[in-house]
Amino acid sequence: MEFTRTSVRRRRKGRLRRTGLIAGASAMLLAAGTAGAPGALGAGDARGTGSVSPRVAALIARMSLDEKLSFVHGGTDPRKLGQAGYIPGVPRLGIPELRLTDGPAGVRVNAHATAMPAPVALASSFDDRLARTFGQVIGRDGRALGQDVLLSPMTNIIRVPYAGRNFETFSEDPLLSSRMVSGEIAGVQSQGLIATVKHYAENNQEDNRMGVNVNVDEQTLRQIELPAFEAAVKAGAGAVMCSYNSVNGKHGCGSDELLDSILKEQWGFKGWVMSDWGATHATSDIVNGLDQEMPSGVFLGDGLKTAITNGTIPVSELNDAVARILGQMKKFGLLDGAATRRPARDPKGGARIAQKVAESGSVLLKNTGRALPLTGKDTSIGLIGPTAKTPKVTGGGSSYVVPDSASSPLATITQRAGRNARVRYAAGGDNTGAPIPATALNPALAVGSDGTIPVTPDASFNYSGTLTVPADGDYSFVYDLPAAYGTLKIDGKSVITGFLGSSTANVHLTAGTHSIAADASAIQGAPTKIRLNWVTPQAARAAREQAVALARQVKTPIVFAYDDGTEGFDRRNLSLPADQNGLISAVADANPNTIVVLNTGSSVTMPWLSKVKAVLDTYYPGENGAEATARLLYGDVNPSGKTTQTFPASESATPVAGDPLRYPGVDNQENYSEGVYVGYRWYDKEKAAPLFPFGHGLSYTSFAYRGLAVRQSHGAVTVSFTLKNTGTRDGDEVAQVYVGASPKTTAPQAVRSLGGYEKVHLRAGESKTVRIRVDAQQLKYWNTSSHAWVLGTGHREVWVGSSSRTLPLHGGVDVTH
Question: How far is CA 51 from CA 24, 240, 782, in A?
């Protein structure tokens, strides 16, 4: 493994320091008589590749030690805009402040912003150009809202189906993730906002993310997790955020192998590395490649100052870090007044793009008997589920965005159905709840007249007491934390860990008294109000009975189902929360014409699937999700999204099932023993039938593939075929090319892996010749003996089709060089 080559790496690292990032400017500084001054640059003052501009070198030479230190750790923003991080700048040298904002699906500050669909929905479009447009919207919003750095995109591979942030990333496939992250970064940075790719590396779960050590073999690391990060570097990402977790025994933000050797030396990354919030573990992390500690200076503040003063850490490490940050500020014009020249927001334009992404990325999972699209004959419709009336716009945590506005599906479907149709609504459940009665709590909980609990930034909310319930049953607790972090424990067991947004947990309680504890802290520098509510079994039963009654009275019931994906914790299972599975099953029993719309962030099991006619997955669809949903249901837009993650048939049939060492880990150790067989690669290897395979997605039209031709040229493979729209509607098809294993290597290889794809628009009856290039990189594997990419030669099988399991065309090519 390359992680054992420490001595070789350190010799190489020493050579690079002697010819480092800013050594080219040292002669100028020496001539100016500054080399001996405190904090000045010398001939061996940097690591990495390339060179810094004379302007940046001159600024560093004029900065005091304290001013330099202010760049390598976060501070407190006096303006309190609500963003995630802040660097004060050096006004006397004309260096502006730097503000860093969360933003996987929109800019998260104390202001309205465009709420985009979840990134997993963007990736489900399989549309690289749309990824760039998605980034442009967020980039403009960020600049307009006073921000300089976007803490996004996230491109960790979807490995664990339970992972709480699966919605916030792209895919289980490294090629798709690479193309998505490249497009989004190009769009974000075209607007002058610096993009930060995260979380480097192997941050594939939320549970115990700060404590777990990921043991991953070299081939798996290089082939599965790292390609999208390398693609982000090649796309010019200005910053990289290192992860909470450890990788092969070293903290993500202190790994010399990941940060210095791979990122800065091998990939030539010229930007800076910042820690995830609180992920720094030692002052010496700066020696191993970390450039900036966020959100404060626990280790890279006074501790680093002392280490530099007493000579434990050379000032060259600090100079290099500051040079990397200033270099990106110069590149993006922030040293030339760009910080004061900001565009106006374009809410209407942003909403249009948000809707386009939602329409392009929604996936029609099932459609029996042409239940969809709805037609003018569908004049009796029943909408069921709380998110039909209160739209599910975004996920929680870093992705939580307050939109300018968001219509409900009830409103948009009612309008689209027209005056001749009757659209009725029943909640079927409750994702808001009601305040827990004072008589049930001891001591009483201090709740305002509006049912909320105020929380200020300087005073956390803490409650501990008892909860008395009148009867046995499943109680649903709802913890709404719009600008706060909080936890809820029942009988000493943590049931909710919430972060920015509303979280729900079902708890079975027996009649009598139980312990209850809750806490919350405001996190955006401003007071907030939280809610701690519940839904009793009696209330849940009454809501379900109303929904079933409505289903019997209408021709077409449409159930809107949701989950609560968020940063900070993983899902406990793959079921829909609050017994929505039971609700859907009951509605379908009452009316076999039932349609389900999912507002979920990741794969879910569907025990009711055989009972319903159609399933449309819109993920977290953003602020115009309701408009997109209505257009998709009525066929004004033809669904064209494809799944970017495998949906398992059951919880016992996933790559991590039955092995706690694979997930969630044992004693802080987690083994990626499945190796390169992540996602669909595992299902193919094990011959396991998924509920829905990777790349799956239906349409209101049909497509036929024929005439496969495969040839090798200049190290790549070109796959040609004819694609025809054989249906009666115009539509888009994502044609996918998969490449088989090389027969001339014994290294682990996938049965087939995605080699290329193209989204093709065809009018009804139209045919096109499609050519998809499988570049040489997709034909290589990582050799753990030579620690390098090696071409997999020999006869390679090639498949073409509409998903990883629907591949009507099959051929091959001899790969020789």
Answer: 6, 19, 30
Helices 409-417, 625-633: inter-axial angle, 10-degree rounding: 40
Among 568, 574, 565, which residue's Cα sits nearest to residue 599? 565
Q: Cα–Cα distance between 528 and 52 in angstroms, integer? A: 44
Does an H or E element contain 355, and which?
A: helix 347-361
Tokens of 166: 């699966």
Query: How far from 257 is each of 406, 470, 784, CA to CA, in Å?
Result: 45, 58, 15
Say if residues 292 and 84 touch (Cβ distance below 8 Å): no
Q: Are 644 and 696 in contact (CB under 8 A)?
A: no
- In this predicted structure, which of 21-35, 509-523, 758-772 has the lowest mean pLDDT? 21-35
State the pTM of this model.
0.93
Collapsed DSSP state (helix, strand, coil) of residue 603? coil
Cis peptide leading into residue 161 (ω within 30°)? no
* Measured CA angle at 362 (ends 207, 139), to 5 deg: 70
CA–CA separation, 793 and 785 (whole Å): 17
Average pLDDT on 252-264 reads 98
At residue 602, the pLDDT reads: 97
Give the span between the Cα atoms of 701 and 762, in whole angstroms.
10
Q: For strands 461-469 and 441-442, give the pairing.
A: antiparallel
- From first CA to last CA, the distance across the chain in angstroms is 26
Report CA-CA distances (Å) from 528 to 297, 660, 773.
26, 38, 52
Cα 354 to Cα 130, 134, 389, 486, 760, distances in angstroms: 10, 8, 20, 30, 21
C-alpha 396: how far from chain center = 11
- pLDDT of 47: 40
